[in-house]
Amino acid sequence: MESSERYPGYVAKVAKALSAAPQSLSVEDLLEEVAGPRPNKSGARSVVYRALQQLYQAVPVAPGRYGWLSNLLRGNYFRHTLTPDEVR
After folding, report:
1. SS (HEC) of 13-47
2. Is the pLDDT higher at 38 or at 44?
3. What is the pLDDT of residue 16?
4. Which of 29, 62, 69, 71 could form a disulfide with 25 if both were Cys (CB 3.0 to 4.6 A apart)?
């Protein structure tokens, strides 16, 4: 079995962790989540940050904390005044 079959990619693991979380997670929480059965690597923190940059749904909410955009917006209402172009 190949390594990629045994260990999902960091981007997929970070996306899964953030999308399942009802609130934002710290980078340390994400490191614990992606470590799982994966062998411990010294550069895991930088890989998690790179994964966060690739995910448009992963948004920073505070220094060192990230949330999944659709989870953070759930239950909120937004008002947008339409411009004449949008009305057409």
Report:
1. HHHHHHHHCCCCEEHHHHHHHHHCCCCCCCCHHHH
2. 44
3. 93
4. 29
CA angle 45, 48, 49 (to 5 degrees): 90
pLDDT category of residue 4 using cuts at 50, 70 and 90: very low
In the block, tokens 């790179």 appear at 50
**CB burial string 31-67: b at 16+ within 10 A, e below:** bebbeeeeeeeeebeebbeebbeebeebbeeeeebbb
The pTM for the full model equals: 0.72
Q: How many residues does the structure list for the chain?
A: 88
Q: How many CB atoms lie within 10 A of CB 13?
A: 19
- In sequence order, what are the residues at sequence separation of 6 or more whose Cβ sits closer than 8 angstroms to the Cβ of residue 61? 24, 67, 72
